[in-house]
Each structure stands twice: as structure tokens, then as C-alpha cells.
């Protein structure tokens, strides 16, 4: 018996990194998975490797949201789970960041999450229940130099999660957020970001003194997508190795 047997899941930003880890674990746990990304070559390769269904998906586009949701419901007859995983990070201090770069981060990370929730309400209502997992960040609790747009978007994801949880509980749709810390992915290892970070000081601030594997986040996401988390909604789950314990939160 898998944790997600019988579930149909849509995962955004699933072509690589943490998203790809979600895709693989969901399949292992018995889910039927459709995943989207703008990275078409990587997406097609993962689909061929894993057996999941890939669809090109720009999360800022209402039309592409309709296509992604339609792909899942047409292939499997329903949609039970949405993982709003797609996200981007641009490291720029406020003085140096263009309004266009700020808008792009907000559009993908925040508006994309909102559009995802909006897009799956109808099929989840039709299914009689659902689970939405929004991937935020520890930057949704604390700020860091050079990450004003990213932090703003991830704080916003927390707020959308709580509002959606209240709105959708009547339809048996649960909405929770996951807040990863230092995860070993290409986005976190962004050269502009790493050039500005004191690696030794950052590592010493952790309680568990290592970067996490992406699948360590996926296990929490899978739990929240499953019926075992049936009494969890509007909640925030940190996967940060204890990073926030010393951050004044």
C-alpha cells in the first residue's frame, strides 16, 4: 500500500530539483502524476524515465493552467492533489533590482500559486475533496539581503494559503504550505547568491548542519497530500534543519 494510492496529482515546476523529487516520490507512493514545467527537454526526459505525464506549463498563464488541469482530468478522470512547486529566485539588492525583475518573481511565485489554487477548485469540488500543497520557503518567515522579491512572494504564499484554507474547507479541500530551508538544488546554489553568502556562518547557524536532499522535503509534501494529514489545513510546515529556531521566529 502506497501513501498516495488512487490519488491523481498535478505538480508544477517538476522537471528538475525539488519538483522532480516530488514527482518520483509521488509515483513510488502510488499516485498517478501529471507534472508541468517550462523546461521542456528536462520535462520530457523525466517523463520518459519515470512514466509520469509531462505538460509544458508556464504558471503565470491562465491558458496553460487550464491545459495542465485538463491533461490530468482527461487522462485520469479526476484531480485530487495540487503541488504548487514552481518558483524562481533572483538575487538583487533593492537598489539594484529592476521593477521588471521584481514583477517576474512575484508573477511566478505568488500569482502562479494563486492561479493554481483557482484552477483546481472546480475539479476538486467534483471529486468531493482535495489537497493543495504550496511550496513557500523559510524566506516566508524571515528576510535576507538581496532577496526582497523572493521573500515578498513567499510571505505572500503563506497568506494565500491561509485564506484559501478558510474558503475551501467547506468543499473538503485542504490547503497547507511547506517551508524548505537549505535544500541542495540548483536554484539555492545560484552563483550570485552563493557569492554573497558566508557559507561557514550559514552552516553554523543550522541545528542539523547540512543541506537537505530534495526528497526530504518531498516526504513532507506527500504526507500533506495524503489522507493521513486529514486534520491539517492552513498550516505551515518547516523543513529547515532547525534553521528558524535561532531566527527569532
UniProtKB/TrEMBL annotation:
Residues annotated as signal peptide: none
Domain Ketoreductase: 7-197
Enzyme superclass (EC): oxidoreductase
EC number: 1.1.1.47
A GO term, aspect molecular function: glucose 1-dehydrogenase [NAD(P)+] activity
SMART domains: PKS_KR
Keywords: NAD, Oxidoreductase
Superkingdom: Bacteria
Family named by the database record: Belongs to the short-chain dehydrogenases/reductases (SDR) family.
Protein's UniProt name: Glucose 1-dehydrogenase
Organism: Nonomuraea purpurea
Lineage start: Bacteria, Bacillati, Actinomycetota, Actinomycetes, Streptosporangiales
Amino acid at each position: 500500500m502506497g501513501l498516495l494510492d488512487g490519488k491523481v496529482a498535478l505538480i508544477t515546476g517538476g522537471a528538475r530539483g525539488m519538483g522532480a523529487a516530488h514527482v518520483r516520490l509521488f509515483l513510488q507512493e502510488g499516485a498517478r502524476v501529471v507534472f508541468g514545467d517550462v523546461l521542456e527537454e528536462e520535462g520530457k526526459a523525466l517523463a520518459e524515465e519515470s512514466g509520469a505525464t509531462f505538460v509544458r506549463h508556464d504558471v503565470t498563464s491562465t491558458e496553460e493552467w487550464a491545459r495542465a488541469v485538463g491533461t490530468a482530468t482527461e487522462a485520469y478522470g479526476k484531480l485530487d492533489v495540487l503541488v504548487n512547486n514552481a518558483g524562481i529566485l533572483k538575487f538583487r539588492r533593492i537598489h539594484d533590482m529592476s521593477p521588471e525583475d521584481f514583477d517576474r518573481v512575484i508573477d511566478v511565485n505568488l500569482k502562479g500559486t494563486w492561479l493554481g489554487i483557482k484552477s483546481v477548485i472546480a475539479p476538486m469540488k467534483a471529486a468531493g475533496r482535495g489537497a493543495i500543497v504550496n511550496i513557500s520557503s523559510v524566506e516566508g518567515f524571515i528576510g535576507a539581503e538581496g532577496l526582497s522579491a523572493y521573500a515578498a512572494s513567499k510571505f505572500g504564499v503563506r497568506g494565500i494559503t491561509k485564506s484559501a484554507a478558510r474558503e475551501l474547507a467547506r468543499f473538503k479541500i485542504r490547503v497547507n504550505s511547506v517551508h524548505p530551508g537549505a535544500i541542495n538544488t540548483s536554484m539555492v546554489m545560484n552563483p550570485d547568491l552563493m557569492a554573497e553568502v558566508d557559507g561557514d556562518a550559514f552552516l553554523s547557524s543550522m541545528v542539523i548542519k547540512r543541506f537537505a536532499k530534495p526528497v526530504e522535503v518531498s516526504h513532507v509534501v506527500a504526507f500533506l497530500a495524503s489522507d493521513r494529514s486529514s486534520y491539517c489545513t492552513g498550516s505551515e510546515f518547516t523543513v529547515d534543519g532547525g534553521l528558524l529556531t535561532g531566527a527569532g521566529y
